[in-house]
Every structure is written in structure tokens, then in C-alpha cells.
Amino acid sequence: MANTENDAKALSEKRTQALVSLSVGVIFICIGIPLWWNTTKVYRASLPYAEIEQLNQLKLRFVTNFKVVLLGLQDPVALKDEIEKKLSKERDYSVVSAAYKLTVERKDSTDSAAVFKELKERTLQELDDYFQQQDNVANEERHQYSFFVLPYESLESNAIDAYVGKYFHCILYNNKDPVKLASAITEVVRSIFVSEEEVNKAFTLASKREFAKDTVESMRAQKSITGFQVSFTLLNSDPDLVLAEWDIESAVQKYLDPFLMKIPHLDITVDSQVLHYSSIKLNPHKDGNTFYLPYDDLPHMINPVEAKLGSHISLYPSLNFVVYVPSQRHTPLYMKNKDGERSSSNAFLSPQWGGIMIYNVERTAIENNTKPQQIAVDMKSVMNIFLSQLKLLLGWKPVKPLDGIEMRLVGDVGVTKWEQESLMRLKTMEYLATSTITLTSLAQLLGKISNMVINDHIQEQVEQALEAIHQSTTALQDGNLTAAVLTAKKAIRSSEEAFFDPSILELLYFPDDQKYAIYIPLFLPISLPVLLSLRQAIRWYRGKDNTDEKDEQKDKQD
């Protein structure tokens, strides 16, 4: 009886030990390991990879609205059919395509004979301003171009086919041939107002879908930039002899601010400085009483000048505009252009960097003075040169002249209405292309490297960029260019903030094999006793089953 009790007690103890071992093993395997794995893994918020992948097949289609106003007895139906026929012949642009919405209306000359007679006495420049007063509000709000066909023919034998003003319209003489009239209208729309070739090139180059050989024109402006830091610097070589002064604050308010108001989609900040005793170590050539710098030596001015400018803290790239007052022993100093002739502006432009202008001071003004001669810099001439350079550095494309089409330009420092639209259209394409390639690159990078962190704010930036891209493409299809460029600007900013977020690299140099190398020395001593106890529990359970089977067989035999 005592043996039976002892056996039952021993069996109960083994059963308790087995249950404890199984409990420890279950907790270790089912709770401990998953808990450790989830607390040490890299946090990766889910991204819309499918939507990002579709950006590789993104094709843009933008709509341009324009109308033709016939001020005579021309047939509007025949002209509209001819224009639509020519516009229907789409050019071979695989990624970016243009669509046009055309309306043709006619004003009967019998009801407006006095007005038409007055128009005939005006010059084309006067007509340009006249039609702007009549039509400006509607066109600027709807981004619509207008073509005014005059009710009379030109008396000149070599009359132009079209006159492009500085606003949103074009003026044409009456032409009884609708084919020729339609050709002139179509050419102005496609090559000047819209510039389909440049628009397509801007997108394909920014998205790396097409590679072209770099030229000075293609490298002049920085691509896909949403803002710039513009710095004006006055370098005075001999302050002991000449004390150059400039009223840069008033010049910025008078010349630069009106110019910047025409490009609200670019964020531009301005600063200025004056540096004395800042001579540039150059060896100009002497020609009589003057000195000159050959064209090939001009690039060598950049490094010594840039070393004196200092650095400006800004989120945007800098554009430097330098007025250099040379030393008296090298005065007057002139630049020579590529043809070996003296530069009319005495200034040159460096792509993506800025421009330098040499400002000479008359030697006769300081010969007999013991004190430094105070010289006021002519800010009008300086700002005119710098603004013409700024236009090129911001990305304005000079329009190629077309046969039979005259354009009313407003000077190098002025910007026409259609030039503003053209730059907005180019920037929209650059922003969309860059944001799409940035998002696809980010998705590919995160897919290849699994231990990169994806925090929630990165997910939000990616989603905002995708939404902005869709909004911009929709605005392009609706013909709303202002909304398109602003949302495209938001897209490129959100995509780049996500791509360059420093939190992505937090665990880049802590891969999984290092994690195992750190935790195995900790878990191995703990896991061995647990595994051995599990082994003992399993063996006990199997031994118990064998004992029960033997007892059952013995009972059957009895």
C-alpha cells in the first residue's frame, strides 16, 4: 500500500515538472520569441507601391484654350474647320501631348464701322494695348489666348502673317485664304504661346526618359528648383582711392520686386553685401590705355570671386550677381566676347551660378584727390544687366523667330504675359517629372533594403506627393495652369522631403545579421535549459503513454 502511494506521489511530481516545463516552453516559444521579434524589427509604414509603380507610365495631356475673333466678313465655320484640321495632326510626342479648345466668333463690321475705322488708324503696338484693355480680365482668369483678325488687309507688300504682342493675344491682317490664316494661327499657338517641343523636352529630360547632350543653353538654369537665394555683391578693389557706394535696397524694390511678382510660383529671397579690398588676381591684357580680359579667361574669375563671397544659409541654391570695381592700375577694364570684340554689357553669365559685371570708374575723377573719391553706382544699368541674366538662370527659353511672325518684346528685363505662362508650363513639367522619379526611386530603394525605417510622416509625405501629382495632372487637363504649377510644386517638395528624410537611415548600418550576433549570446544560455526541460517533458509524456498501454494489455490478459 505504501509503495502504491509513493508511486502515485512520484508520478504526480513528474507530471508537475512536465507541465511546468511545457508552460515555460510555450511561453518562451509562443510569447517570448514573437515579442522579441516585433520589438526589435524595423518599423515600416505601408506605402502605396502600386500607385507609385504606375507613375512610370505617366503620360501628361494639357489643354490650352484660345479663341479667334473675326473683325470682318470672314467665314468663321471654314476657318474653324481648317484650324481644327491642322491641330488634329498631333506631333510625335509620346509622353506629353497638347490638346486645344477652340472657339471662333465674328463681329459684324456693319455694326461697328466706326470702331473698325479707328482700328485701321492705329499701329500694331497701339492695337496690342487696345485689345488688352478690352480682353485682359477674361483671358487672364481663364488662361485663354486670343487671335484678332483685322477687318482689312495690309497695304504693305511684305506684310507679316501675325503680330504677337506682349499680352495673351495675337493680331493678324485679314486674309481671304482660310488655309494660310489657319496656318499662321496654328504656328503661333504651337511654337510661341505653348512651345510644345520645349514642354515635352522639359518633362522627358527631368524624368530621365530621354538623354541629350548637354549644351550651354540646357545647363544654364537649374532644373526642378522651387526657389533661389539671390545674392548681390559689390567688390571694391581700391577703397583707398575709390569708395564705391550703391543703393541696393531701393534698386531691389524698384527693379527686382516687380519682376519677381510675375513668377509667384518660385520662392526667391534676396541678400546683399559690400566687400572692400577684394581684388581679383587676374592678369588682363593691355591695349593702349585700356585693359581687357579675353573670352577664354572669363571663367577663371569665378573661383577667386566665389572665395570672397562667403556662404549664406538657405534651403535654396544661390544665384550670385557681382559688381566688380577693378583697381586703378587696371582701369578701365573690359571683357571681350567670343568673337574677340569688346562686350557691350561688360558682363558675363555663368550657368547655374550667376553673373559678374565689371564697373569701371573714370581715372580722371580721382587723380588729384588725397581722399577716396565717392562714386555712386548706376543701379539702373546694373539691374538691367542682372535681370536679363536672371531671366535665363530661372529657365526662360528664348523663342526662336519664325518667318512671317513678328513679336513685340519688352526688352531683356521685361516679361510678356505669354512668357510667364510659358515658364509656368515648363516648371510644371519639371516638377511633375522630378517628383515621379523621386517617388519611384524611393520605392525601389525601400524595396531592396529591408532594414530602412519608414515612419508615419514619410508615409504622409508620399501620399501627399501622389495626391498633388494627380491634382496637377487634372488641372493641366482642365487648362488651369496656375493650379497645376502650384500643386506640382507641392508634389516635388513632399517627394523630396520623404526621399531625403534622415530617419530612413537610422538602422541602415544595423542589419539583421548584426542583430542576431548581439542577441544570440543572450538567448542561447537561456534557451538551452528550456529546450532540455522540454525534451524531458516530451520523453516523460511518451513514457507515460507506453506505461498506460502496458497496463491496459495486462488488464485484458487478466
What would you say this structure looks like, in words?
By secondary structure, the chain is of the alpha/beta class. Helix content is 49%, strand content 17%. It has a 6-stranded mixed β-sheet with strand order 2-1-3-5-4-16, with helices on both faces. A 5-stranded mixed β-sheet has the order 8-6-11-14-13, with helices on both faces. A hairpin with a 4-residue loop joins strand 4 and strand 5. Helix 9 (248-260) runs parallel beside helix 11 and helix 13 (456-478) runs antiparallel to helix 14.
Keywords:
6-stranded mixed β-sheet, 15 helices, 558 residues, 5-stranded mixed β-sheet, alpha/beta, 16 strands
Helical segment count: 15
Strand numbers in spatial order across the main sheet: 2-1-3-5-4-16
End-to-end distance, in Å? 21 Å
Shape: flat
Radius of gyration: 38 Å
Uncertain ranges: none
Mean pLDDT: 80
